[in-house]
Amino acid sequence: MHNQFTDSTPKITLNPDGNEPTDVCIANISPRERKKRQQFGIMIIAFGVVILAALLLTGADKLWRLPLFFVFSGGAVSIFQALDKT
Question: What is the pTM of this model?
Fold first, then answer.
């Protein structure tokens, strides 16, 4: 039986100071899926920038920009997840 948590699994040590016991984070997403997640995040942020530019150029009310917070947040979360390998 193959154990998915063998020593060949890349690990990230979460203790930059080195003065306490460390927690180990095992990557639970493949490099291919991380790349897809990062590309999706970049695409969502670019989409938000295009919408923001359109709102600014048309002189739309400032309240119409408020929903873009969710667009930019979603893109950022996707990129952070890809970089954190989760």
Answer: 0.66
Beta-ladder partners of 25 = 12
Residue 83, pLDDT score: 87
Alpha helices, DSSP H, located in 1-86: 31-58, 68-84
Q: pLDDT for 63-77, tens place per residue?
A: 999 999 999 999 999
Per the listing, tokens 């997840």 go with 81
Residue 26's H or E segment, with its range, is strand 24-26
Radius of gyration of the chain (CA): 19
Angle in degrees, 0-180, between the axes of helices 68-84 and 31-58, rounded to the nearest 10: 160
**Distance, C-alpha 22 to centroid of its chain:** 24
- List residues bridging with 13 in a β-sheet: 24
